[in-house]
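Review form for a predicted model. The reviewer records the input and the model, then writes brief findings.
Reviewer: anonymous (R2)
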Amino acid sequence: MTTATNQPTVNELAKMIDHSLLHPTMSDAEVQAGCEISRDYNVATACVKPYSIRQALEIFEGTDVMACAVIGFPHGNSTTGIKVVEAESAALAGALEIDMVVNNGKVKSGEWAYVKREIALINEVVVGSGSILKVIFENDYLTTAEIIRLCEICSEVNVAFVKTSTGYGFVKQADGQYNYKGATVEHLKLMRKHTAPHIHIKAAGGVRTLDDLLMVRELGVTRIGATATKVILNEAIRRGFAGSVPNPHLEGVLAAVAYMSTELADKPVKVAVAGIGFIGQVHIESLRRLPGVEVVALCHSSQGSAEAKAKAWHVPRAYADFGAMLAEVKPDCVHIATPNSLHYAMVKAALQAGVHVVCEKPLALTVAEAQELLALAKEKKLVHAVHFNVRYYPLVREMKRLREKGDLGRIHSVLGTYLQDWLFYATDYNWRVEAAQTGDSKVVADIGSHLIDLIEYVSGLEVVEVMADFSTVHPVRKKPKKAVETYSGKLLAESDYDDVAVQVEDQANILLRFGNGARGSVSVSQVAAGRKNDVNVEFSGSKSSVAWDSTRPDELWVGLRDTANRVLLRDPSLVDIETRGIISYPGGHNEGFGDTSKQLYREIYAAVRQGAQPANPSYPTFAHGLRELLLCDKIVESNRKQAWVKV
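Model under review:
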């Protein structure tokens, strides 16, 4: 058992990890991202396909992270001669470690002379090139006797490591599904017992958590193969393991876990919120669900209304003057949830005051304003985020992970709708219907921005061309002369309204073209009777389809061509390990709209506690806010021209 006296440091754990980048559909861009993770977390190696060695080494330059080439992958079926050439080429390219897959067919045939000769020839080439050899068994295919014999052969040949699995040794399990067990306790003990003491054991397949790593370490394992590197090491940091990952590229990366560290919880983060309408209240409520975060002031349209809101929400200080609030309260971070027309000036003032900023979308009214704010935030080295909270439904994250792992194949079609009915009647009124307050677009800027951000986030694709058609269902709306709370549904007497001409859209239909040639269709409306806040997306790929509906957020439909479709439930035991990071409750305990903001803020406030924007933030930033403004501009232009417009 790991105790305080023998607990490894974070860096020691990192040096036990070979970060695996071997999925058959992994693109060069995905290899690049994986190598950057390997570099940032200062692991032992990144395991890559032989053609990616030089790409990896360019990223690792100046660090002690190594490239490990995997040959004969995944089933060891190449001839010995081909494996020897692979090994020579990999070593020549700069791989200091080489993993090879044994010929499983020859093992199962009992042709031990062939197996030993192959391992010996490859080991000779590898060692002669100044590298080391790790031999992969694929234990799921093997009997106990076969594993023992392989351990004996590797000891006789004197390889550096023996390894449990490729992670692709799928075997039909008792439930009829094809899967693998990978590194089991039984097999690790067997390998340690029957391998020479100086030969190392590498556990691969199923080592996905810090506890998994600590457990196999207790069994004598000195290296693991893992795709969950970030999760494992972030958890070690969160638990307070000594040391850190000493890599300059890691600036801000660990912010995603730092907010939970006890040493950081001593000093509360002071937060101010500007704009206490519906969404501003969501901000306050969600912020109060974070440990060590305090809402200390709010700003609203008048001093009287600000004080009333502050009293209702038990916030100690109230302001109508945003600048005075910044100067007197000196918050660590400010949330801006005011009408759109106020965003630019408030964000700029906060950044100039050295305050971190979370802004509702849109970030500003124009692309030029957003560009200025992004540049200023970078110059000031401040945390900056945009409230694209729909990304933080767990099964939205799961769709993204399915795409990243290649389960969807090449995406060729995207369908999306975002429908509401809160502006269904001409008497429904809000500042958003006024172009001076909201900008050139209403429904696209208000909810279409969420939908298109979600689509690009999940698909990993960029929209490159748009065709839009807008409709204003109520060209004249009735503006109440008395205060009426949005969403209340209250009606006044006819004499209590003024007729106001409306220049912005109530609904929009948009066709999308993506950079990979995929096509998309999006519909957004705030006049769809009965649809309160319904987001629907469907991604169709060459392998499968996925569909998600925000009114049933804990269900993800997976469509398959040749087998039964299935519904995946939001359950931390059933989803990808990265998805688990934004799930707070067990399966069957529903999480919804309010939880999305909480999960988003967890990541943002990790960075706030670090005092700077991470190098590669996990949350949406001003750059994403700028992106959505650019897209919105092009969509508005397309509607005006009634033509395709390039982005």
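Findings: The two ends are 57 Å apart (CA to CA).
Further findings: The first helix runs from residue 10 to 14.
Recommendation: see findings above.
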